[in-house]
Description:
- This protein is α/β, with parallel strands linked by helices.
- Helices cover 39% and strands 20% of the residues.
- The chain has helices spanning 17-33, 52-58, 68-86, 103-112, 156-166, 187-201; strands spanning 3-7, 37-41, 89-95, 119-122, 125-128, 134-141, 171-178.
- It has a 5-stranded parallel beta sheet with strand order 2-1-3-6-7, with helices on both faces. Strands 4-5 form a two-stranded antiparallel sheet.
- A hairpin with a 2-residue loop joins strand 4 (119-122) and strand 5 (125-128).
- The protein is globular.
Amino acid sequence: MSILYVTASARCQAESVSRQVGEAFVRAVSARTSEPVTRLDLAVQPLPELNAAILAVWNGFTPQSQSPIDVTATDFYGSLTAQLFAHTKYVFAFPNYNLSVPPVLAQYVLGAMRAGKTFTCTAGGYSGLLRGKRAMLICSSGGMCSAVDSPAYCYGPGWLSGVLSMSGVHDVRTLMVEGHEENPSQAERILQCAIAKAQAAAGEF
């Protein structure tokens, strides 16, 4: 049993709500279960560009020219996929950027969770290969975006949950932290309340 903790905020630990709540959750889980934690910070771990040569290899073709950089990039994304299989629990902590996930997280998902690797396409639909896993999604939003009457909506958690489900991860939980920028006078209270919820949720993860 082990935990893969993926963060995607461009802000540092002290300034990022998603990082602070995510760290509190991961530490609480690890303290309870003694499970080792692998940390992957997408803000400091540059991801190779997904170019035509890489996509050709993924689709089973041998490109006419593939640079050493492309070979390294293909191997790197393969290592990210292997990392998913090597862990039993995933924690994704990320902010809401323009109603979605940060671009670097989207690129990670596109590169690490792929057809033929984390799921297959059959006559009956998608068949996930990441079986027996569970995930926690911790998403922060400076404004309120989950309320029924909100003019905006945060699509990130739903999209990531869908890709995980397609890959075989059906036990996906979500913790939203929102309103801390819209209500700056309540920001600290919102943060501490979210941390308390995260620590409580860790007891069942």
